Amino acid sequence: MRETGYAPFAVLHLLSLLNNTGRNITMEKDFWLERWEREETGFHQQEINPYLRQFWQELHQLQGGEIFVPLCGKSLDMLWLRSQGCAVLGVELSPIAVRAFFEESGYKPDHGSCDKFDYCEADRMRILCGDFFDLIQDDLKKVHSVYDRASMVALPPEMRARYVRHLVSVLPPATQILLVTFDYPQAEMAGPPFALPGGEVEALYGEYAEIRLLARCDVLAANPRFAARGLSRLHESIFLLTLKA
Ligand SMILES: C[S@@+](CC[C@H](N)C(=O)[O-])C[C@H]1O[C@@H](n2cnc3c(N)ncnc32)[C@H](O)[C@@H]1O
User: Fold this and answer.
1) Which domain holds residue 14?
2) Which atom belonging to ligand 1 lies closest to the Cα atom of 28?
3) In this model, does residue 153 exceed pLDDT 80?
4) 150 in a structural domain
5) What is the pLDDT of residues 64-83, one digit of tens each?
């Protein structure tokens, strides 16, 4: 895995601000597809996310239903969620990421397609390969919880409201979301990851969900690559959101 190069995204981001919304989204899709092609996947964690282990119990419906992992990459957290008894449903743009997830975890998945997505699935883990914004309610009808790490911070601020509106419009009522985000002084580094201040979570989700901040941790020392890029502060925050019924 190579270290992430963010400069191209900064250029795309700037260009996207000059264009209309449809064009903006296309450019961002290309950015992520190229990141996977070039193996620039510094966001991928080799360990299970410690906050997932710590706060998993906060989700009410742990067993039986399906947990949705938006913009899932090849996150190992999906294997951990499966080991806790949940069926897992991911959505991911890059077919490279989807293939890598199953291959690297030793599965020979079944393949299929439905409407706008191709999918791979094995052992009650299904990843839809395609655009998050193409999901419809029927795709998520069995979902009871969402685990969202590094999705909102992957999106530039002007796309986040659209992301949140779409997510809440396709989830069943009363779904719970465990949300892991980053915050840092945005002026010190071009994203992604883009900074996501706690107040923005409140502003974006406030009308749709009850919001509880579970923890806010200083993680700069544990992420020397960000310190090396000039960050003076880096916080990771974990929120529990419960959508209104
Ligand atoms: C910062 S990575 C986070 C991946 C994963 N959540 C993790 O924790 O490792 C963002 C991921 O979102 C995917 N992505 C970006 N835009 C997407 C979209 N519109 N639909 C589906 N996946 C998308 C990218 O390909 C990338 O794998």
Assistant:
1) 7-243
2) 16
3) yes
4) yes
5) 679 999 999 999 999 999 99
Domain CATH number, residue 221: 3.40.50.150
Q: Which amino acid is at 40?
A: E
* Ligand 1 centroid to residue 109 C-alpha, Å: 20
Q: Of ligand 1's atoms, which has the minimum distance to the CA of residue 131?
A: 20
Instruction: Name the token pair of 239.
Output: 């929120």
Mind listing the pLDDT tens digit for each residue in 159-180?
999 999 999 999 999 999 999 9
Show the tokens assigned to 180. Answer: 């892991």
Q: Tokens for 26, please give them.
A: 């296309």
Residue from 117, 99, 95, 97 nearest 109 by CA: 99
- Domain count along the chain: 1
Task: Decide if 1 is inside a domain.
Answer: no
What distance, in Å, lies between the first and last C-alpha atoms of the chain? 42
Q: How far is the CA of 163 from the centre of ligand 1 (A)?
A: 12
Distance of CA 73 from the midpoint of ligand 1 (Å): 5
